[in-house]
Specification:
Strand order of the largest sheet of chain A: 2-7-6-5-3-4
Number of domains of chain A: 2
Distance between the termini of chain B: 42 Å
Strand content of chain B: 5-15%
Largest sheet of chain A: 6 strands, parallel
Number of domains of chain B: 2
Strand order of the largest sheet of chain B: 2-3-1-4-5-6
Helix content of chain B: 40-55%
Distance between the termini of chain A: 77 Å
Oligomer: heterodimer
Shape of chain B: elongated
Radius of gyration of chain A: 54 Å
Shape of chain A: rod-shaped
Chain lengths: 330, 468
Amino acid sequence: MDGKDFALIPNVLKYDSETIKLNPLLVNWMLIKRAQFVALFFSLGLGLALLLMIATQDIAFAWSTTLQVSPQGFHSVLVCVSSPWSFYFPSAVPSLELIEQSHYFRLGDNLSQKMINDASSLGAWWKFLLCATIFYAIFLRFCLYLLSVLGFQLAITKSILSMEGVKQILEDMNEPIISTHAIESMDSYEVVHTGELQIIDAFRDSYNGVQGWAMPVEKLLVLNDILSINSQVLYEVGGTNSLKVDSEIIAKSQGEILLYVKGWEPPTMDFIDYLEELLIEVDRVTVMPIGTEENSYIPMPKSIEVWSRKLALLEHNKVYFKHFTQGSDI
Amino acid sequence: MIDSHPQFAVVGHPNKGKSSIVSALALDDSVHISDVPGTTTKQRSFPLKVDGVILYELLDTPGFQRARRVLAWLQKHEVSADKRQDIVQKFINVHQFDPKFNDEIQLLTPVMAGAGIIYVVDASKPYGEEYEAEMEILRWTGQPSMALLNHIEDTDYSVQWKRALGQYFKMVRTFNPMKTDRLQHISILESMSQLKEEWIAPVKKSIVLFERYQKQMIHQSASKISRLLEESLGLIEKRSCDSDKVEEKDKEAVEIQYKSHLRLLEKETQKKIEKIWNHASVKKEQALLTFDELDLFSEESAAVFGLTRKELMITGVTSGAMTGAGIDLVFAGHTLLLGGIIGAVVGGTGAYFGFKELSEIKVLGQRVGTYSVQIGPMKNKNFPYILLGRAIFHAYHIATRSHAIRDIEDLSMDSTLKEQWLTDTLRKSLESSHKIFRSGDTIGVEVGESYTLLVEDILEKLIQRIEE
């Protein structure tokens, strides 16, 4: 809206009028209300002025017309006009006699001594004039003002509904509030990467033992064959072994151990426990993640990263890491 | 203690997608998902709440770390089957403050409190016997359970997994959290309800509410899009200048200001829509969907999302003819229907020549000696379609995006989506609203509402289509 649109609206709304966005309907009703308010005060002033005149001056009222209107006809019109207050203030309804007495003619017989004689009764009109002012000027204006207030309120309601967010609030009030997310925020847990992992490039000619974490011996034979690893001592560790069986295998282990792990499975604390116990007994453990059979046992780079990161955290000088890539080892 | 609402603990081996499943089922993208095992260290609750009342609760738990040790401890107390639950409870009590078994305590505590078990495995990797200790522990708890086959990668070992899981779980279902949709979601909820008879009613109620929630989200998104169109098309940008002789730089400046305001409105709406669909995690640094190198005002944007010159002409002709026909109607056809014809010609040519032009730039005299240059409301007939097309494209992808996905979506933007929803009839309905929006007047609530309904219908149909 332009600033000029606000010329007739209250000062308080003119403030920052460049940024205020008002519904035109609301602006219309604002103007109507204000106009009715001003007119009501004007009417009140009119009524007050009349009262002052009645109190301070002698008002003589006479009527005349160019038209052929008889006092009886004029009386019936005034009775009709006075009907709103005739029940409460019958004296404020001009009588036929008063009308006849106050009929003024420029010429003719009726400009008579009689009218001059009745001059004192001409002041009796003031009640009618006051009631007419109160009812038609003040009361009806007041009604119009009330109507404008009502219209303004309705316009406010309507314009509020068109505001952004209000519709949303109403919908929220009528619709059930559904939420599925967590109540509390999550504490992010990041593994701090410390320690260096000893990575080897080539296998030894032979190992004192080859073990597979949750891997059957048959699988170890296949892997040894593929990688040309020499070792007569093969064990499956972890998996369905009992802890006691694993302890016995550890007790029998010595020298340098090649430990195959499933690259796609993450290193659990169960594995770490086993490795730590094994490291007490042996000189060196080379951990090698392998991939799935379908992937020719080549592990995914992501799983190599997961395993190497976990083993690096051990910071153990007996732990070595070996990974192979396609074409280099197989 | 058994709570009055059903609880479901999502448990399993580390790094098998438990958090992804919870994220997808709870429609919450704030769940920390990582390929680093052991990221989840504490159980976390995701309740489905309706007006503050919890209907069911999902619990994300850490993975088993020392399953064999736990099982060994349990088996040391060899008891009859009816006492096994007590032994599991005893394990929790004894090891409650033992950091060694923190993860097991975190996952077993809700289970022993009455939560149903949802055991998650990755069926894209081969089955391993090391899982048996975990499954045996869960059997010891005696709680109702089901297994979910998650597929983190494309390979499939479902057959061997199903064979093994079938021995421990009565129900084995497949659920891919990365590709989940409403129907798959509901199907899993239905399976969960079957775990216990008294859970059927609350979970069924949740399904009804979940569908209502989806409708609410579509409606809210449509309302935001409608508001975007209304605000953007009616936008007026002003800039003060020194004289009534407007220089080219003033024109350029006001146009830049106008365009950046429009871009901002679009961006804000996108954010609001992402929030509606719970895709606005505060931890996210980048926008989910980027229209990189596809600016709102680029030629490409017009080509992908806007109407073709021919479509624009047809739209212009139709709307012009309708206005003209109104004049004919007023004069009861005494215009020999010329109104309709002239309206069509004017509308059609206007649309043709106004293909690139945004809006006219006017100079306004204000107080003595001060002038301002003004641009807007939008006159370009194609712009509303570009803006609406982009908004629908964005909302559709957000609505169908799984909450388990953490990557930025790589979207191929072409006009195929537009072809699915923009019909001739719809274009006519849209155009009549665009005309009102472009008028720059304050728009009645009913106009905005009818536009919202049109957009809602488009989104609903697009989302339903993907489910089919």
